[in-house]
Amino acid sequence: MADSLSTGLGEEKEQEKGGNEKERNAVRIERNKDKDGVTETLGFNDKNGATRDLSLGRFITTEITRGYFLEHNEAKYTERREKVYTCLRIPKELEKLMTFGFFLCLDTFLYVFTLLPLRVVLALLRLVAVPCCGLRGSRLLQPAQVCDVLKGFIMVLCYSMMSYVDYSMMYHLIRGQSVIKLYIIYNMLEVADRLFSSFGQDILDALYWTATEPKEKKRAHIGVIPHFLMAVLYVFLHAILIMVQATTLNVAFNSHNKSLLTIMMSNNFVEIKGSVFKKFEKNNLFQMSNSDIKERFTNYILLLIVCLRNMEQFSWNPDHLWVLFPDVVMVITSEVAVDVVKHAFITKFNDISADVYGEYRASLAFDLVSSRQKNAYTDYSDSVSRRMGFIPLPLALLLIKVVTSSVKIQGSLSFMCVMLFYLGMIMLKVLNSIVLLGTSCVFVKEANMEEKLFDPPPSVASSRQNCTHSVGSGFSPASGVLQPTNRLESTAPSIPKSDSDTFLTTPDEEDDEKIINTDTGLEGDELRHRTSKKDLLEIDRFTICGNRID
């Protein structure tokens, strides 16, 4: 009897609970209807089991009145809006980088015409004065002076070899070819130029090191003369290659229907297809940015050469300059537009912020500032060549050849004009260097890269890691001055604290969560991915032959 009563009470409670839930659901549905309007879907049964109205009018009414709420997926729409803002910021940030890189290349290019001849003259005077003064114990030439003399000899020999090349004959030979053939030739020349730039600086660096290597080391090279001949051959061939490029561009400018110029400009838009749909990281984008800076500066010099040759043919008539002006503007505009579109979509597809171009500027500025220190291990012009692939010697050689063949110097007044022009170039070089140095210091300070300026060169750092320091008596070289280090509590070898192995110049968001290994002094993530990450300061011209993905 008791069991039956308890069972009945349990069933009544369950029925009450079920009834309460039904009432709550009914009240909730009524509230939703009052708040949002009619949100019912056609084809469902109502409470009584009857089928709702499936008329066309009901369907149209539902389509017109139904709504949705974007705030339900706020994160996604916020991300889309930020991508739009990033694309809008890309032109400004990219042009800041391009402008800074352009003046870096201009500074290196002007160095060949202004300061390099003066340095070569000073080095030759020292070479003559030291034996005459009886200073046998002193070194004849410093390593930097040896490199300057080699550059001067290379320029003189290549210029004498360029005198046997007939520009007019090359122009008419190229002009006689068909449009399609010229288009193919121009594309081949662009690829060859990147290959020459990639291998050319290696040849020059090998020559400089072979000529200045300490004599006490074991000889592991073929000699200075073979390296010098290879460097001369490279500069000459690269100058001929750029001359053919300039001649092809000149033919395109002088064609009647401008079809060749249009085809050559469309080749820039083909570059978008080959770059946008690839996977890019920040390092790869930095390599592409350096290549674009070098390409843009080279195109400006080629346009200058084309204008000089055309003005010479029309007896320096200023009216003809306005005839060339629209084509020049069209080429420059297409180049800028392609770069902006390419970088905008690369950053969009790879989720890269526009602030990364500020880091790129800081890395380029770091090269300029570090080359001005006493413990610098390379010249700034060579540093730009390694970073961007811009080698100024062949381009400067071609410009000297074109100017000397286009401008006739006769009389004392002409020589005075040449001297004034040379002094003006020196003033422009000095002013550009001062402004660049001040701007670079600001960029380095904003990126918190000042500590890296006092780090020793890579070879010195590696030698320091192999040696052990005694307790309390160590010395650390910084800025060429020996300074006492802090007393250590253990005899373990000291590892220089530098953030040069980090991926970017600014810390990532996950840096606070990384754990430092006390045995090695390296972070856990760095130990696992050390081979896959590179510092921006280590990126050089090795990838200008294409957008290589590591």
TrEMBL record:
<feature type="region of interest" description="Disordered">
    <location>
        <begin position="1"/>
        <end position="33"/>
    </location>
</feature>
<dbReference type="GO" id="GO:0051216">
    <property type="term" value="P:cartilage development"/>
</dbReference>
<comment type="similarity">
    <text>Belongs to the TAPT1 family.</text>
</comment>
<feature type="transmembrane region" description="Helical">
    <location>
        <begin position="100"/>
        <end position="129"/>
    </location>
</feature>
<feature type="transmembrane region" description="Helical">
    <location>
        <begin position="419"/>
        <end position="444"/>
    </location>
</feature>
<keyword id="KW-0891">Chondrogenesis</keyword>
<dbReference type="GO" id="GO:0005789">
    <property type="term" value="C:endoplasmic reticulum membrane"/>
</dbReference>
<dbReference type="GO" id="GO:0036064">
    <property type="term" value="C:ciliary basal body"/>
</dbReference>
<keyword id="KW-0812">Transmembrane</keyword>
<dbReference type="InterPro" id="IPR008010">
    <property type="entry name" value="Tatp1"/>
</dbReference>
<dbReference type="GO" id="GO:0001503">
    <property type="term" value="P:ossification"/>
</dbReference>
<feature type="compositionally biased region" description="Basic and acidic residues">
    <location>
        <begin position="10"/>
        <end position="33"/>
    </location>
</feature>
<dbReference type="GO" id="GO:0045724">
    <property type="term" value="P:positive regulation of cilium assembly"/>
</dbReference>
<feature type="transmembrane region" description="Helical">
    <location>
        <begin position="224"/>
        <end position="247"/>
    </location>
</feature>
<keyword id="KW-0892">Osteogenesis</keyword>
<protein>
    <submittedName>
        <fullName>Transmembrane anterior posterior transformation 1b</fullName>
    </submittedName>
</protein>
<dbReference type="Pfam" id="PF05346">
    <property type="entry name" value="DUF747"/>
</dbReference>
<feature type="transmembrane region" description="Helical">
    <location>
        <begin position="149"/>
        <end position="167"/>
    </location>
</feature>
<keyword id="KW-0472">Membrane</keyword>
<feature type="transmembrane region" description="Helical">
    <location>
        <begin position="390"/>
        <end position="407"/>
    </location>
</feature>
<keyword id="KW-1133">Transmembrane helix</keyword>
<feature type="region of interest" description="Disordered">
    <location>
        <begin position="482"/>
        <end position="512"/>
    </location>
</feature>
<feature type="compositionally biased region" description="Polar residues">
    <location>
        <begin position="482"/>
        <end position="493"/>
    </location>
</feature>
